Amino acid sequence: xxxxxxxxxxxxxxxxxxxxxxxxxxxxxxxxxxxxxxxxxxxxxxxxxxxxxxxxxxxxxxxxxxxxxxxxxxxxxxxxxxxxxxxxxxxxxxxxxxxxxxxxxxxxxxxxxxxxxxxxxxxxxxxxxxxxxxxxxxxxxxxxxxxxxxxxxxxxxxxxxxxxxxxxxxxxxxxxxxxxxxxxxxxxxxxxxxxxxxxxxxxxxxxxxxxxxxxxxxxxxxxxxxxxxxxxxxxxxxxxxxxxxxxxxxxxxxxxxxxxxxxxxxxxxxxxxxxxxxxxxxxxxxxxxxxxxxxxxxxxxxxxxxxxxxxxx
Length: 313
Ligand SMILES: [Zn+2]
Fold this sequence. Notes:
By secondary structure, the protein is α/β, with parallel strands linked by helices. Helices cover 58% and strands 10% of the residues. The protein has two domains: 1-97; 104-294, Glycoside hydrolase/deacetylase (TIM Barrel), CATH 3.20.20.
């Protein structure tokens, strides 16, 4: 091979290499031209999808917060409603227990319950927005437990009138009396969750059947911080005679008017005293129209006591 021939071949090789290189560059450019928009479009698509997801999640959050706001609003309205109801109950209760100094007071008191007549009496008291005092005995059973609780819940005074009401047992000796007082106190506390503060002696503080001097019994309740109440008016529902409801009301009114400005009216709510329960609406109407404050016994009430405690006795 001549020298010229070698040069020519080398040039030809060089020429082919250049052509190959040029082809590669052209190919790469074409690939780039095709791929870049493709990649970009994929990226945009992905980005768009992500944005859409974000928007829908935000929309969902917004919707949830709107729902929450609505439910909060509803709760708030409910609370406001209950508050208003409570306010009106308290106002009603305050009206029923407000003592007007210029008016005479009458305290309706019911002994020997509870019974089904207590339900009837409580319904009437509720209807007329009047509070009373119940000197109760220990009566078992769910219905009676509900009655003790209702007395307290509706703003009346739950008071004690002995556990057994059997005079010969209660007044047999001082220990028996003490035991009976403590038993009824615990019984009412267990039933209604309130420790009673007021007591009415079976037969009154002036009874003549007690084997124990009543001064000892009085001393005991006083020492326990219990205030006892007798009565200075009655509707005669426990005299052994049978009266109609309207006769009971007339007798009660006559007795109340004779008693003065601070009247504790004795009535009964045991199961045989249906006429007393039936007489109550008319009695309340007549007391109201005679301008009496009808009140429950509280610590502010001036006690009516037949026998006062005599420290020397
Ligand atoms: Zn009694």
